[in-house]
Design goal:
By secondary structure, the chain is an alpha+beta fold. The protein contains 14 helices and 20 strands. Strands 5, 6, 7, 8, 9, 10, 11, 12, 13 and 14 form a ten-stranded mixed beta sheet that branches. A hairpin with a 4-residue loop joins strand 3 and strand 4. Helix 6 runs antiparallel to helix 12 and helix 10 runs antiparallel to helix 11. The protein is globular. The model has no long low-confidence stretch (mean pLDDT 90).
Length: 552
Amino acid sequence: MSADYKDTVFLPKTDFPMKAGLPKREPELLARWEAMDLWGKLRAQSKGRDPFILHDGPPYANGHLHIGHALNKILKDVINRFEQMRGKDANYVPGWDCHGLPIEWKIEEGYREKGLDKDEVPIAEFRKECRDFAEHWINIQRDEFKRLGVLGDWEHPYTTMAYGAEAQIAREIGKFLMNGGLFKGSKPVMWSIVERTALAEAEVEYMDHRSPTIWVRFPIVSAKDPLLEGADVVIWTTTPWTIPGNRGVACHDKFEYVVIEVTETAEDSLAKPGDRLVFASALLESTAEKAKITGHRELGRLKGAAIEGSLCAHPWRGQGYDFDIPVMVAEFVTDDAGTGFVHIAPGHGADDYILGMRYRLEVPRTVAEDGTYFPEVPLMGDAAILTEDGKDGNANGTVIRLLIEAGALLAKGSLRHSYPHSWRSKAPLIFRNTTQWFISMETNGLRDVALQAIEDTKFYPEGGKNRLHSMIAQRPDWCISRQRAWGVPIPIFVNRESGEPLRDQAVVDRVAAAFEEEGADAWFSSPPERFLGNDYNADEYEQVTDVVDVWF
């Protein structure tokens, strides 16, 4: 018979039950902490100690907590408790992010379900619904965080929609207004057609997307080098819809380019014998394959620097696009894909815009906020880049058809690649030239101040420092305006005649005082005279209704 070892094991005797019974015990423990005012006792005990302050990025008030919230807050609670037991005053003040598109999107969904148009609802009423929605979820999330056992000043949290917070945001915008850092400009920004607003980098996620690719001829009309006479520069792009906005072509000054004469083609090729084409020599084989060119004669080679300054015709010359297209040089041109030439649409890309400014190109107004083309854009009619639900529209197809009709398309294909999407609607985004409010990174040395602050800060792990430093060093001016309703407005008046913002500290102070008492809703519910005072005629000023980027 085998031995029973149970009686040979010496275990401590305890009153603890065999089962923890956590579902029952945890609420009792939390109730005990609350009844004894544990948080108040800790604060009284810690008075005068060195502070430990956790600057905690707040959760968004729009739903029940999930495992990500739990992981985030429990880990931070461990840190706060550790610092408290080390003898510090770890006074943790929780908070909530309350403004922004997710809440507005949720209220709009309710309207759509009822067959109502959000734009027909008074803005004050709409904003109240957004505020009530956020308040509802703050109360729910507060109880859920407490249930996780997280200690904090839950009775006195901060919220971004508190009147005092909204007033302070107005004051800070006022500082940039008064020191000249805030300006209105027309630049390409990341734009959501579905949500009808500009987006910040932090609101963008990259997902796989299939894009059409096209190889397009740009006939040279003024050649800098005799070798280029009678030839077509060939560009490659994954955004055919930007062709109406083309105002230039870029090459790399150090790349070698080849000029060929087509001698033989496949039956279904869009090229024909006698065509003279120019592209990077490193991409000769791949481009000829895509264009189904089966035979060619090489006429010569030259560096990109010898092509710069040549002028091309837009593929739709004679159909409303009767301007010259200069060939420029740019460091961002590559020779690992495409043709070694990049078509430049200054209104539809950050690199395009910067290069366009350097060469003083026109930045045309081509695409409206709904993704259709403005009526003055020739040939495009009512073509749309995306539909209202974020699906591909007919713009790419329209451009390709028009290029074929003009004899300008050399080849077409498709490419699956990483492409920017909205993190909320999950719809593809576009770069779109639009008038927005920006904070300059150069005026008042803002970039240098930010970079120095990074240098003065310890990072754990250290690698995060280099990443952030690189991002700030290279970032363009900060687009802070959003074309939405639920948020803190950019409380600025613009002179209708000059287009200049009104810079008057007294006006800024009146706005901040109103926000402090009534919240940012005062901007929409009050007559402009309330803020302008007696020194200005309200008829001479336009009141800005954009809201500020929530990351501000």
